[in-house]
Amino acid sequence: MPELPEIEALAHHLREHALYRPVARVDVASMSAVKTFDPPVSAVVGRVVTGASRYGKFLAVEFLDRPDDPLHLITHLSRAGWLRWHDSASATPPKPGRGPLELRVHLDTVGGPGFDLTEAGTQKRLSVYLVHDPQEVPGIARLGPDALALTRDEFAAVLTGRSERLKTLLVEQQAIAGIGNAYSDEILHTAKLSPYAASGRLRPEQIDELYAAMRSVLTDAVERSVGQGAAQLKGEKRSGLRVHARTGMPCPVCGETVREVSFANKSFQYCPGCQTGGKPLADRRLSRLVR
Predict the structure, then answer these.
(1) Of residues 237, 231, 286, the one with CA closest to residue 261
(2) Which residues form the Formamidopyrimidine-DNA glycosylase catalytic domain (predicted)?
(3) CA 277 → CA 190, 193, 271, distances in Å?
(4) Which end of the chain is more exposed for a tag (fewer CB within 10 A), N or C?
(5) What are the distances in angstroms from CA 188 to CA 183, 281, 289?
(6) How many other C-beta atoms are found inside a 10 Å radius of the C-beta of residue 16?
(7) CATH number of the domain at 152-275, out of 3.20.20.80, 1.10.8.50, 3.30.70.260, 3.40.50.620?
(8) 6-47 pLDDT, tens per residue?
(9) How far apart, in whole angstroms, are the C-alpha atoms of residue 16 and residue 49?
């Protein structure tokens, strides 16, 4: 799933390539992906791209060329969605339900440059909204503070009184916006904290370590990602991961074998040597959790 660094890089890519270009046509290949109907997505035709922004893990393309009628084309890429930039595209409208294409935006001229929103797999969860104000998107309206905007004291306040495990809290978008499964694994590994540590029971020095880890992991990932082409971002993300999706491989810090805990439709990875005092966390599929 694209997270804060990748969405930030995609927004930067759009600012580099799409800015000040008019929309020539929008092709909707999947009506189920479009979650709003007023205004219709065709309302952006003739409008000029004036910016691109990130709200947590939401990506917004801005059309502020008419101050009395601002528009924001917003997408949440979910687990398998992506934005693909093209210098040219077929002028023939796509057939609905064929292939991974969900929505195509032609800029300058039909068949010219622009971008596609695509989604792999059979579970179609990518969402597209066209709104006058980003706060009209329910997911954005519910977002907590952005992970990179929090001060240390604000971060501590988010943790105070919370009973959730750290892994759960870090990916809860209403608590902290922008972090997903992969970077939460990396943050906890860097901070040397168990995924199952109680959020509200950390000592002050552990809060310091977790905050510093969040800042460093995300900032480093943004710096590595921004400037990369959209096609290279997935590979760049994988290359920077130390524990996530590395089950069975040696931890690059201590050499211990990276382990995994699996749930019904997701999993996370951690290093027992760095994070749990050498104790493995039992897989929930097999037995009760070991703290």
Answers:
(1) 286
(2) 2-126
(3) 14, 10, 9
(4) C
(5) 8, 14, 18
(6) 13
(7) 1.10.8.50
(8) 999 999 999 999 999 999 999 999 999 999 999 999 999 999
(9) 11
What is the identity of the amino acid at 79? R
Rg of the chain on CA atoms, in Å: 20
Tokens of 8: 């930030």
| pLDDT tens digit sequence for 227-243 | 877 667 777 787 889 99
In the chain, what are the helix, strand and coil shares in percent, each to the nearest 5? 30, 20, 45
Reading the block at residue 19, the tokens are: 């800015």
What does the alpha-carbon distance between residue 180 and residue 266 come to, in Å, rounded to a whole number?
Answer: 12
What's the CATH code, domain 4-141?
3.20.190.10
For residue 244 the two structure tokens come to 């996530």
Q: In angstroms, rounded to a whole number, what is the distance separating the alpha carbons of residues 145 and 148?
A: 9
User: What is the percentage of the chain residues whose pLDDT exceeds 70?
Assistant: 96
